[in-house]
Amino acid sequence: MFSRSHTRRPRKYAFAALVVAASVGLVLSSCAAPSSDAPVAEELSWSEIEQQAQGKTVSLWMYGGDEQGNTYVDNVLTPAAAAAGVTLRRVPVESTTDAVNRILSERQAGVTDGEVDLVWVNGANFGTGQQAGAWLCNWTQNLPNMEYTDPEDPLLSSDFGTPVNNCEAPWHKAQFTLVYNSAAIADPPRTLDEVFDWAEANPGRFTYPAPPDFTGSVFVREALVNQSGGVEKVPAQFDQDTYDSLAPAVFDRLNALAPSLWRGGTTYPQSSSELDDLYAGGQVDMTMTYGPATLPQLVADGTYPPETRVLALDEGTVGNASFLAIPSTSGQSAAAQVVANIALSPEQQLAKSEPDVWGQFTVLDTSRLTPEVRAQFEALPASPVLPPYEELSANAHPELAAEWVTPLDEGWRRSVLAGQ
């Protein structure tokens, strides 16, 4: 994912006052030496954590190409953190992997007051860090605002097949979504098979980002589910034998599709941003996103054509959540917990859900909110572009384990890209 070069495109992703009772919280225990074991925080009351956080600075490392997300953090979340006595410093990175690599290097060097205090993370990056003991654990269950989440929500308890285990705080939800121009596609396809058929009947009007772009990778995983006969045919946990039996059909189908793609499949957009530019410029009639809540604003500001609509597939698409994690190398874990708790508050979740703020789907269970705040969520602007989350996520399936990602990405490069 990369920042925009010539168009403004926001991306993936008066309030009622709420009084939250104090509860137990945690801060980082000292670690004797690096290991793969997840460091566990020691118990402190929430008031003690808030006291330790006063006057501290938290460095939040997050993808820097998301203009709308960056603006939300700078103009909404940062002032809220300041009101709680914490300075929030946003550190833009080209990829979350940059943050994880920094943390792992610091952990190997025995650093206990590192450069990274909080990371916007999910998926393979979280799993990689978890295997290396990069994350502070056993703290999120005690954030006061966790009471507004559903403990049975599978998207919040598992991250690409890796148990969250109270090692990262939920931030917002996402749903992989195909997007189309209804002025160009009067009778839109309803299944992924029909999307492939439509693309072959309309050469040059469809493409997808090249893996390992995040959106391109999830498109290939959707194709895996499709070609395997449904999500129940693909085990969530990776094993080589299953991959060897299922992957060839996926790559065969994508190879057959390639000549009908934009530029005859001789080249692919290198990022979701590049695909979005093609769609915005009318060179293709479809794009795809993991952050469909931003679509109304993209239409409103003229980036996307007014006829832009969500393409709801009958079989559903993959959904997940993204999180805020505290590195085990952070020396500001108390202040980082305060920021994560603020980010999870109904006020911040509501602000972040506003299409002109960031337009992200909340991780809160709105039935747990006060009637006044619940009404504010229900009053969020409706849009002809975007159906409600409940409709958008119908028949949704969870992400496959992160271990599927690299083999599929590398297999696509060997079997599809190199086969041109």
Report on the structure:
- The chain is an alpha/beta fold.
- The chain folds into 2 domains: 24-172 and 322-382, Periplasmic binding protein-like II (D-Maltodextrin-Binding Protein, domain 2, 3-Layer(aba) Sandwich), CATH 3.40.190.10; 175-319 and 395-417, 3-Layer(aba) Sandwich (D-Maltodextrin-Binding Protein, domain 2), CATH 3.40.190.10.
- Helices cover 36% and strands 15% of the residues.
- The protein has helices at residues 46-53, 67-83, 96-108, 123-131, 154-157, 192-201, 214-228, 240-257, 272-280, 295-300, 333-343, 346-353, 371-378, 389-392, 405-417; strands at 24-28, 41-45, 57-63, 87-93, 118-121, 158-159, 162-163, 168-175, 177-181, 286-289, 308-311, 318-325, 397-398.
- The strands form 4 sheets. Strands 3, 4, 5, 8, 12 and 13 form a 6-stranded mixed beta sheet that branches. A 3-stranded antiparallel beta sheet has the order 10-9-11. The chain has a two-stranded antiparallel sheet with strand order 1-2.
- β6 and β7 form a beta hairpin.
- α1 packs across α11 (333-343).
- The radius of gyration is 21 Å and the shape is globular.
- The two termini are 24 Å apart.
- The model is unreliable at 1-34 (pLDDT under 50).
